[in-house]
């Protein structure tokens, strides 16, 4: 992910230096945007990230942003013996909705850096599927779904380059960690509880349209 962030920064820096100047005025007002990137969901599980944002720059250097995104990934583990085959699949889906205060630092009239802090609501869905095939018998499948939900703060650092009077491209890294209790019930009618941290770094590149 470090390599991807370096690439995002280089793209924005190059765009800010080679694109023509369309306006020397600092951006103000409302904008909408979309982004794509990668996100850490839980532990070592990473997935693709897509999202959208609405931002209002109430001053030349200050803005408020609301955004939502979606990221997912899955892993499969297969075991087999002489008379059976078992396939276990775990899928993760993360739905964040958050708000951020941003402060922009102009580098030149086409390129600026920004940093921000805020908070959001983070929901992680965990779906566990286990399928067992024994001999010539019909396969048996068991599916369990768990939800982790938490409020958590976050930090972000980004770079934006103007490509026209209305459009800008940006790259951003964002970090949050949320915590909730995972409760699992088994067939013996008792449950287990475990505190789980989820989230982590996110890297994205996107485009903004200013009204």
Number of helices: 1
Spatial ordering of strands, largest sheet: 1-2-3-4-5-6-7-8
CATH topology tier name: Porin
> Which residues sit in consecutive blocks of at least 5 with pLDDT less than 50?
15-24
CA distance, first residue to last residue: 32 Å
Overall spatial form: elongated
Architecture in CATH? Beta Barrel
Taking Cα atoms only, what radius of gyration do you get, to the nearest Å?
A: 22 Å
Helix content: under 10%
Number of strands: 8
**Average pLDDT over all residues:** 83
Structural class: mainly beta
Question: Could you explain the architecture of this structure?
Answer:
- The protein has 211 residues and is mainly β.
- It has a single domain (2-210), classed as Porin (Beta Barrel).
- Helix content is 8%, strand content 73%.
- It is built from one helix and eight strands, in the order αββββββββ.
- It has one helix at 2-18; strands at residues 29-42, 45-57, 62-80, 84-106, 111-134, 140-162, 167-185, 191-210.
- Strand 5 (111-134) and strand 6 (140-162) form a beta hairpin.
- The longest helix is centred in the N-terminal third of the chain and has 17 residues, at 2-18.
Kindly summarize this structure in a few lines:
The chain is mainly β and 211 residues long. It is built from 1 helix and 8 strands, in the order H-E-E-E-E-E-E-E-E.
How are the SSEs placed, and which strands pair?
Elements: H1 2-18, E1 29-42, E2 45-57, E3 62-80, E4 84-106, E5 111-134, E6 140-162, E7 167-185, E8 191-210
Antiparallel strand pairs: 1-2, 1-8, 2-3, 3-4, 4-5, 5-6, 6-7, 7-8
